[in-house]
Write a structure and sequence with these properties.
Four copies of one chain form a homotetramer. Chain A contains 13 helices and 13 strands. Chain A is α/β, with parallel strands linked by helices and 350 residues long. The longest helix of chain A is centred in the C-terminal third of the chain and has 21 residues, at 258-278. Chains A and B meet through helix 1, helix 3, helix 5 and helix 9 of A and helix 1, helix 3, helix 5 and helix 9 of B.
């Protein structure tokens, strides 16, 4: 991450900027003064647009970032002595510095393995039935990430199976939608089909990774869980006074359809990259490329070489695993440059 | 706040949008991809610019909003069983829905009265010496607001006197700078003169009220208090992944000098309004107008009339108190319209 | 509190030891090993005995002390962004070092004045209707202390009036029963008459002040509020592994009737003391003596004199207010000694 | 745990009652009234006795139970965004229902495997060096259990090696001494030799498992970490008003030497049991029996048979693992009865 030449960005979809559709609305929202704290002329419109797009009368809230969105939703779905079941690679477990535990005042995460970064009904059931004494934090919520942290997606059938186990044990279902748009695009599914129609109680839908500067939407399909949630956001430092600068760009994404075309583009770029990588010698894909992330095992010397060439990316699971993430503005030119550098590297290093 | 005609905004400086200087830098920062989580090319520059402007090698952090800035700083300055001494009208006491208590996991606020919204050494000392048993949360921090919640400012002498009492009882000094720029302008003082030179340990400097969409800077002059503070921000959902969209607009404010000219303008507008109000019959100013807020006692029927005419403002301290806040973009035309409506109202209502 | 001769204790009912009835059961419970964590042969019996005594199928939990009992109950009755309405002299506000805020992760206490240490429907309503915006923590619970912190008691009529305002605003009603037994004795009322029959949702019933070493019972008449409460106690460090040493002494109090005779005795001693004090020159009672505490205004020099003579007591509300508390083992001899010292002091000091 | 005949207790050392030496002092402390909140005549004596016994001027605090002792100490040793490194079988991870996370307001536990229930320098180092970004809670404390959760003990050499890695990474060292007395006895070591002399910063020393009804001592050898700790205990519901009923029984244990003879006895009983078990066919010890717990792999049908015969014990690590714990009052007769039942069971079941 300290490139020695001009950096070229494939580390995450959060290295990209604000997409044109979002910027257009941001500028519009700046043309006049407006009421604060979400009482402006944009926030209600954006929330209604979400309800229309999901074809559901859900509760909609906007917060600043993903740590907060997931942590606040989870805090609302249980209490401090409950536990949240998630995949061992779940972002809430590995990359939030204890955020969910902080916002919930102590709820433990119980982790489960699972191929391709996905929770399974069996894995969930094993955690629930392992113990039922009061020394064990009582499982209350299942949190799954769609698309997953390794770039795969849960099919509708997989989601329904998880909902069934949730019903069996009276668990609530939370979806970390950091890349929810990419999942919709990958599965050619509507937002409704991947959420309330399969029993999701609450979704955290990321705008930041989809082309905004900041801003995540939290949608409660189980409206009971949203009781007094606005107070929770306020207390936790997640009520924007100039809320319209989150809501308006979101509306730009939704009204223009960019929320989906951005995701389709990013997914297509990842597919392109994966396809080309698969043909390189000494390179092997680690997971199926279903959304906008590509995970690949590279020789360590190649990793060093790419970093020297300015490429930014994360390593993942050991020294040889590498993650490339495509975004709404990733170009084939950029990917071709990467592939060319890889080929050069592989040649010279062997 | 539900005006029946075109709303006209004097409720708060957070109803204004993004000022041109901030917008220019926001657009610049959007021209290329950049590293996430503050490792971009803007964040360090903005932090350095703060250090230069304050003439001090302080620690600088950026968070999303004021609730978080104040609450996180206070949490870092004490522990859950400590208490924070503040004015009874302090925003952290009256308008944060328990935010400071939430972020600190339970620190109580001990409130003190004081004329013109200002803490006094005597008031602070009374709270500290009231009790010293372990059933009373041990005072650890003094929090004062500069400019205050009623539009007045602490002079340097007043700040030094508060620092003296802080020293006497080993208390830390926090400054809620929601309108810090306005205080600098009002006192014709440098940022240094109103902070570390008078013993302020930490300042929360609001950008939102100064012309940004979002973004507050937390400056620790007492660097020990900033230990591992970046982790605290992260855990609490206050680390922006696209940090440059907070940092760059801040840099725009600082490099252009707009941080101060915006404040000077807002103060001048408030002074203009106060001067004109003072001459209206049946209208009395509640506090000296030293920064950008004007507090005035109005006849209740006039308040209703103004709301019907679309004016947005808060009532304050009883039914008759009203607050008008001027911002970087408030115009004399707007204020003249308000005054004209007041005169009409006063005539017709009597 | 640092007497220079043999201390004589009237500071609080927690300076007394374990009463014989409690000790007898403690010793019994120690005759054999038993299951841990409340699965022993005593805990269920004690809980059932509470249900019988209250004539209600309530949920019963045992915790170590009053800070925890009240704080855990309040945490269960609301969420972090809610507020608790209590009297400005309430123990939870003045003497818990932020305990309720800690256990609830930030719920604010909103305080109300009220003569004789009692909340009034009007005072409660004023706090509820003061604001309804999200910057104000939403009122959710009323907490009252029975007997009050100043030794008075709420009548059934007063409790019913408070329940009416609770119903009007959908608030839950918590009773801090640090001296609940004394209130029952004072009002010649059954436990049922002072709790669920007047709409109390949860009662924290102190055993410590009633003759135990440790141990408070939390009774939820509103059973929904007790959902998973055992987990809450465990997580918060309030599940005793050798629970029988709390439960058995409680059972001793209940089966023997000592819970009430202890209280009656303490009340009678307080009444005796108050009666005698009222006849002393220069001494005036501050509140009606209805339970086991006597509050009296004394000349400061007399206060010093009494301390020198080894008397332990708290001062209260200013330099001249003094609280004497009688307990299950207070004797008339002790009180006569106090009165004699007072008379001597008053004579010699004037 | 629901035996069908008279229960016989080997489930834990918390099924035993109060030992005679503790009871004697409890009764003594009940002979007179005394000051509350630890200002009595016993608490300071007990604390001094700890200092003498550890040959160190440490800070000493008493709390009700082990959940609280460990959680409060850990909360004082770090902040919410720090992490605590512990063994994957550590009680704080597996059996506290999120207590450490609750008291610390979100600190994550990072777990490490290790043979015989022991952390290793390598395991600790792996967790510390794994990542150093702010998305990973910064390691601040190592917590080890002495004796361990599987009945083994850390040697002084092992402790010194862990202290070395703590020094290398600026970590604090916490010792969960739920069975600290048993470790001292097992290693024939003084309390000093196993704590501050090997760099332990804080020890939670259990009295409950050593023969008290309730009560743990927290000893800070690193006194800086104890700053204002009394307030922390108070706020968290761990300040006993009748503190002498914790302190006096502790003093009984310490002055009589029972703290150690109790542990020696329990260890001897465990050694006896282990020796005899090792000779049974179809039975294998799971860990070395070094303290007062015996872990043994039994055929499932034998486990059922023993439960039917009234034996209480926990299963552990899969269906076949069983833990027997000996206490200060365990007798060879009881163990012989167990062994006889086992032999009968093994014969009849095969």
């Amino acid at each position: 991450m300290t490139p020695e030449c001009t950096p070229r960005f494939l580390a995450s979809d959060n290295t990209s900027g604000i997409c044109p559709e979002a910027m257009e609305y941001l500028l519009k929202a700046n043309q006049t003064d407006d009421l604060a704290y979400g009482n402006d002329s944009w926030t209600a419109r954006a929330a209604d647009r979400f309800r229309k797009m999901f074809d559901y009368d859900c509760e909609v809230f906007f917060v600043f970032n993903g740590t907060a969105a997931n942590s606040l939703a989870l805090a609302a779905m249980g209490r401090s002595f409950h536990s949240v079941i998630c995949h061992e690679l779940a972002h809430i477990e590995t990359d939030e510095c204890g955020g969910p535990e902080f916002f919930s005042n102590g709820a433990k995460l119980l982790t489960s393995p699972g191929v391709n970064g996905k929770l399974t009904p069996e894995g969930i059931e094993a955690l629930v039935t392992k113990r039922n004494d009061i020394h064990y934090p009582k499982p209350k919520v299942i949190s799954l990430t769609q698309a997953t942290e390794v770039g795969t997606v849960y099919s509708r059938e997989e989601l329904l199976a998880i909902r069934a186990v949730a019903d069996k044990y009276d668990l609530r279902l939370h979806m970390d939608g950091a890349r929810f748009a990419n999942a919709c695009a990958a599965l050619d599914a509507t937002p409704a089909e991947l959420t309330w129609q399969v029993g999701v109680d609450a979704l955290c839908f990321s705008g930041t990774k989809n082309g905004l500067a900041f801003g995540e939407a939290i949608l409660f399909f189980n409206r009971d869980l949203a009781e007094d949630f606005a107070w929770r956001c306020k207390q936790a430092g997640q009520l924007a006074s100039k809320m319209r600068f989150i809501a308006a760009p979101w509306l730009g994404l939704l009204e223009s359809g960019a929320w989906r075309t951005n995701a389709e583009h990013a997914n297509a770029m990842a597919a392109y990259l994966a396809r080309r990588l698969a043909s390189l010698p000494g390179v092997s894909l680690m997971f199926p490329t279903q959304a906008n992330s590509v995970f690949v095992e590279l020789p360590p010397v190649l990793i060093d070489y790419l970093r020297q060439r300015g490429w930014t990316f994360y390593t993942f699971i050991g020294a040889g695993g590498v993650r490339f993430v495509c975004a709404w503005n990733t170009t084939t030119e950029l990917l071709d440059d990467l592939l060319a550098d890889m080929e050069t590297g592989l040649r010279s290093l062997t």
